[in-house]
Amino acid sequence: MSTAGTTGPTAQSGLSRPVRRWLVLAICCLSVGVTGINLTIVNVALPSISKDLHASVSSLQWTVSTYSLVMACLLMLSGSMADRFGRKRIFQLGLTLFSLGSLLCGLAPSAGWLIAFVSVQAIGGSMLNPVAMSIIVSVFTDRQERARAIGVWGSVIGITVAAGPVLGGLLVGGINWRWVFWVNVPIGIAALGLSQRFVPESKAARARAFDFLGQALMVVLFASVIAATIEGPRLGWADPGIIALIALAALALIGIPVAEFRRSEPLIDLRFFRSPPFSGANLISLVMSASLGGFLFLNTLYLQDIRHFSPLHAGLMIIPLAAGQAVAAYLSGRLVASRRDRLPLMLGGALLAIGGFLLVPLPLHTGPVHLLASYTLFGLGAGMIGPPVNHAAVSGMPADQVGVAGALAASARQFGIAVGVAVTGSIVAGTGTDFINSSHSAWAILAGCGLAALALGAISTSDWAKAAAVRNGERLAAAGQPRVQKIVDDRLSMGG
User: Fold this and answer.
1) CB atoms within 10 A of CB 427
2) Minimum mean pLDDT among 2-16, 85-99, 442-456: which range?
3) 42 and 146: one domain?
């Protein structure tokens, strides 16, 4: 690895090297676990937030989407900052901001202030997932051991997603919705103290220049797409503001390759996207997360607003989804460790599609067995996809870009969540019978995301894709990137 040697208390802790590695993994899992809890615990609280703060469906969409949107916009920058200034340092800054944002969210007097404080929370969150991934990569240097560690990391995220609905239901039903944010504070403080004591510092051997233009264009693209999707149905698609947002997104989309290809050290080297495995992994991450984000948003409205379940009852109903995600992530991690990315990618896409299609004909009253079966299948699909996507993203970059590599897949994942919430929320803006009728189309779109993940998994792990990756690697090597052989070797490990 082309990272600086580890420094800090860990090196002198007296613990054996294997114990230190797994302790660092545990700390990383604890810190990113709060983001997993935050994903589902806030969804459970949405109806209570709506009543207490008099928030509209659009405001609820922004509450959930703002978190994912800000994360998506800043993940690349956070990964780059971690490689430059030190992964431990940025990791701890992220924990501090996330905890502060969570505290402020619980104090929010209105929906507008809540959305603003969620932004603070998300800025900190953007420094957790990708930086934790790069810390794991810098500590676990063996390929198979690293794949197992990433599988464990994915499983823990799944477990915290499972704990979120139950914990949220208990807090909302027993105390107040504000505690779904405040519960993050002690976890963040604990992770901050442990990271100071045990996590070693590491950074890229050579710091890359910041690409502020590329970062700005990404923010414009992501923010314009989400804003237009959420506000379009309310204002009308012919509204001048919506047309301006769409035009702005198109200009940013065109501007990104123009600006990035002119830089010697771009935010992300777009030439890597010429490799089908690398591009496929990021597209799969986006569609899978769009499906999951939309699913959680729709399900919360259906169970609490339409079926009138209590927050705790609704939280308990989601457990099979999150538990399936945790189990599947662990199994998928073991498959990835044995060089089999193709099977979990395709199986995950198929399970997502089946789980989504089971909910397309959802009536006003559905038996619990039908709901729980679809939730379980959906969770198994999401869990299967996570580890091979993360592994492919990390394997697809030179070692000194590992922070940016992890951030890219995480950015696609967060943007996907925001898109899923924006699209499904815009479709089911009504309530009662209107909600049920419009939800059929929304569930079908989410199921279609599963089919897209299945197709992308098949294409990106095919012999053609691997051959294209080799050719792209040869072109990069001819352009003066000697470390590309490692990238080619990692590409060939996919789809075994």
Assistant:
1) 20
2) 2-16
3) yes
Same domain, yes or no: 72 and 88: yes
User: Residues 403, 139: contact at Cβ < 8 Å?
Assistant: no
* AA letter at 319: I
| Statement to judge: residues 300 and 401 lie in one domain | yes
> Are both 44 and 135 inside the same structural domain?
yes
Answer yes or no: is 420 within a domain: yes
Q: Give the 3-state DSSP-derived string for 241-283, with helices as H, strands as E and coil as C.
A: HHHHHHHHHHHHHHHHHHHHCCCCCCCCCHHHHHCHHHHHHHH
Tokens standing for 234? 């309310």
User: Is residue 396 pLDDT above 60, yes or no?
Assistant: no
Residue-wise pLDDT tens digits, 30-77: 777 777 777 777 878 888 888 888 887 778 878 877 887 888 778 777
Query: What domain count does the chain have?
Result: 2
Q: Is residue 4 part of a domain?
A: no
pLDDT of residue 485: 41
- pLDDT, residue 483, reads 43
- Supply the pLDDT for residue 292: 84
Any idea what the CATH number is for the domain that residue 19 is in?
1.20.1250.20
Indicate whether this model's pTM tops 0.85. no
Q: Are residues 242 and 304 in the same domain?
A: no
Tell me which amino acid residue 153 is: W
- Return the pLDDT at 114: 92
| Residue 35 one-letter amino acid | T
Domain of 251 in residue numbering reads as: 212-262
Indicate if 164 and 311 belong to the same structural domain.
Answer: yes
Provide the 10 A C-beta neighbour count for residue 461: 25
